[in-house]
Design a protein that fits this description.
The structure is a single chain. Helices cover about 40% and strands about 20% of the residues. With about 500 residues, it is α+β, with helices and mostly antiparallel strands. A 5-stranded mixed β-sheet has the order 9-10-13-11-12, sandwiched between helices. Strand 14 (about 200) and strand 15 (about 210) form a beta hairpin.
Length: about 500
């Protein structure tokens, strides 16, 4: 590491956090900044560790958005390419790019931007679009917090209360519908960057902020500024309110249609559901999740650890048919696949009807071994061939149950595989005496552990399944890997 400061250059080497020599004064310089050369330790990162250039570029460019005026030059010595990132406008430049990437029209012109100083230093840019979801990027001290936290709670409250305050100030009454917080935030795209003196990160990957005082701090900084902006930008405010009213009316219409259908067919549909299905009590598909699990024993643990209101469990017995090789007659006669089709309720093939889907999220929860991976692949093959709308709609996820549990120094760590287990062990402080447990299967995992690592939406790690290039997927993954020609496989 070389540091250029106060007209002098100093250098020092480190290995695993410890100096490998004294601080050396190299000489005089007019440069300012730090030059760091880093080589991954194979004992920590594994012998196959490689840099993901796209991830490095994305991370570095995000830093230049978060620190306006900062210039970062990335040189790829392998290819000889060089990349320079600099954004004078900071996150005010980041937001239009994020909106453009989502490919949804803006609800109003311009953006709301705020930069505030205080116990919590804050920078915020936001804009409403015609999207049906809510996109929020948050950072704490320059670190992305993908799991949100107390700063996100404060921002959500500030946005909702600012819009409601605008409605009160303009004496706007809405007849026939009630605006919910979700209606107001629908379509919102926001980037929030805060700086906290002593952040408390939570979660297994430490990507959720836990400081309770930050919620009120963020709300007090954002709410009055956003309320004032709405009052000063009447046309934008009217467009935002109009968009929220449309969202509320659409939600009310969907609910009425859903309740009407449920009233007519709830009894029949409940009677026709598979006997092994432990269904959830909610009748709102948007909040319901189905976990397809491997085996009855795993199903028992999942049933104990689930949220009975929103999470349903369907155990499978053994490996399902390979839909790439089996005939249609065999597929329709297979009880395991028929149970999946019946539980989802949306039909298959040409009869697939997304509006009839009973669960918005479908998780494949299998053991973290080769058999579990095989069953997962068989289920994905079935979905791709006979229910492709599930994949295209982003409804299918791969659950990530841990294979190892490491207890050390009153802390518990979870590892998905041996490589992650080794990284956890290598990161423990000297003198720690870790206890490592390996789960032989989901059926042997305590319900509380399964809930904490795999079922709880706030703590679980899951992968959404997307189809990136249908021609390549069809040719390579399905025909060659799952087809009858063993030589191609």
């Amino acid at each position: 590491m070389h540091v250029y400061r106060d007209g002098l250059e100093h250098a020092q080497r480190f290995c695993r956090g410890k100096p490998r020599g004294k601080l050396v004064r190299v000489g005089k310089t007019s440069k300012r900044g730090t030059r760091l050369h880093f080589r991954p330790d194979p004992e920590v990162f594994g012998p196959e560790a490689r840099f993901d250039l796209d991830l490095v570029r994305e991370t570095l460019e995000a830093r230049t958005y978060l620190h306006a005026g900062l210039q970062i030059v990335l040189q790829d010595q392998g290819s000889g390419e060089s990349f320079t990132y600099e954004h004078e406008g900071g996150i005010a430049d980041f937001l239009p790019r994020l909106v453009a990437e989502r490919e949804k029209a803006a609800t109003h012109p311009g953006i709301f931007y705020a930069s505030k100083e205080g116990e919590v230093r804050l920078e915020l840019a936001l804009k409403w679009t015609d999207a049906l979801d809510y996109c929020l990027r948050t950072y704490v001290n320059g670190i992305p917090t993908r799991a949100g936290g107390t700063h996100e709670v404060g921002l959500n409250a500030a946005v909702v209360r600012a819009v409601r305050a605008y409605l009160d100030a303009k004496s706007i009454s809405i007849k026939g519908v009630t605006l919910s917080a979700e209606d107001i935030r629908e379509g919102l795209v926001a980037i929030l960057s805060i700086y906290v003196r002593e952040p408390q990160f939570q979660g297994q990957t430490k990507d959720r902020l836990g400081n309770p005082e930050v919620t009120a701090a963020v709300e007090s900084l954002v709410r009055p500024a956003l309320e004032q902006w709405l009052l000063e930008n009447g046309s934008s405010a009217e467009a935002i309110v109009g968009r929220a009213i449309l969202a509320a009316r659409a939600r009310a219409a969907r609910r009425e249609v859903t309740q009407s259908v449920l009233r007519k067919s709830a009894t029949v549909r409940r009677l026709n559901l598979p006997g092994k299905l432990a269904d959830c009590s909610s009748t709102e598909p948007a909040e319901c999740e189905l976990f397809i699990v491997e085996g009855d024993s795993a199903g028992g643990s999942a049933k104990q650890g689930r949220d009975r209101h929103t999470q349903a469990i369907l155990p499978l017995r053994g490996k399902v048919l390979n839909a790439e090789q089996a005939s249609s007659a065999k597929i329709w006669a297979n009880k395991e696949l028929q149970d999946v089709i019946t539980a989802l309720g949306c039909g298959v093939g040409k009869d697939y009807a997304p509006e009839k889907l009973r669960y918005d999220r479908v998780f494949l929860l299998m053991d973290a071994d080769s058999d579990g991976q095989h069953i997962t692949t068989l289920m994905l093959t079935f979905f791709y061939r006979h229910m492709p709308g599930l994949l295209r709609g982003g409804h299918v996820y791969l659950a990530q149950p841990p294979l190892y549990r490491v207890d050390a120094a009153k802390e518990t760590y979870w590892a998905l595989d041996e490589a992650e287990r080794d990284r956890v062990l290598a990161s423990l402080p000297a003198g720690a005496k870790p206890q490592v447990s390996r789960f032989k299967g989901l059926g042997e995992m305590p319900a509380e552990d399964l809930k904490a690592t795999t079922l709880d939406p706030q703590r679980r790690r899951a992968l959404r399944v997307v189809v990136d290039g249908e021609i390549e997927t069809d040719r390579v993954l399905l025909n060659e890997l799952m087809g009858k020609d063993a030589q191609a496989r």
